[in-house]
Design a protein that fits this description.
Length: 207
């Protein structure tokens, strides 16, 4: 005869594995709640792991420049000669380093999903192979990037650059960084043309 460990009997009874225990187990709502929590936790963990992998893949330069319009930006001489691509220490900042906030998982995932859908639609509906179309679109994209960095207090810049450790030599730079410390301006307020050539804001629509 199979012997049942008496120490495990209580657990087996509560979980419904002992004869006659199923009905009693169903009377314990906390068991159902516990099972739901465990299943939810497992699903949530799987979603986080999967999204983290997707976030990492869609943050690569190869992925970002797979679109025709972004390939144009990546080949721009100003960008290639900028401090983010050519510097003494050999550090290369890719597209996502500057354009995808990664201060927390939710913000990063939201940015990938929302911006990815928007940019994908624009890429497949806009004729960016036409230089005139691209030239008209560029000011809109540049202004959008500046506005986003302003709203986010240049959080992507701060991933690599700590203002507390930057000490400008010029009086103008020192005054600007004092205003930065007070929250009156942000990095992109002064440094909007660092990686890409400065582009004028789009013309206001005629009234």
């Amino acid at each position: 005869m199979t012997q049942i460990n008496p120490n495990a009997g209580g657990l087996l009874y509560l979980t419904g594995w002992l004869p006659g225990a199923k009905g009693d187990a169903m009377k314990r709502p906390w068991l159902i709640t516990f099972a739901i929590l465990v299943a939810g936790g497992a699903i949530g963990a799987a979603v986080i792991v999967a999204s983290t992998i997707v976030n990492a893949y869609t943050s690569t330069e190869a992925f970002c420049t797979s679109c025709h319009s972004m390939a144009i930006v990546a080949a721009d001489p100003h960008y290639l000669q900028s401090g983010h691509r050519t510097n003494a220490v050999g550090v290369l900042a890719n597209c996502a380093d500057c354009h995808v906030p990664s201060n927390n998982w939710f913000v990063e995932t939201y940015s990938h999903v929302v911006d990815g859908i928007r940019d994908g639609i624009a890429e497949y509906t806009g004729n960016f192979n036409d230089p005139a179309v691209w030239a008209a679109r560029l000011p809109v994209l540049a202004q959008r990037a500046r506005d986003e960095m302003q709203r986010e207090n240049s959080v992507t810049c701060r991933k690599c650059h700590d203002p507390a450790h930057i000490h400008p030599a010029s009086d103008a730079g020192q005054r600007a960084h004092a205003m930065l410390a007070q929250g009156k301006i942000t990095c992109v307020s002064c440094h909007s043309g660092i990686a890409h050539a400065s582009v004028a804001a789009p013309a206001a629509p005629a009234r």
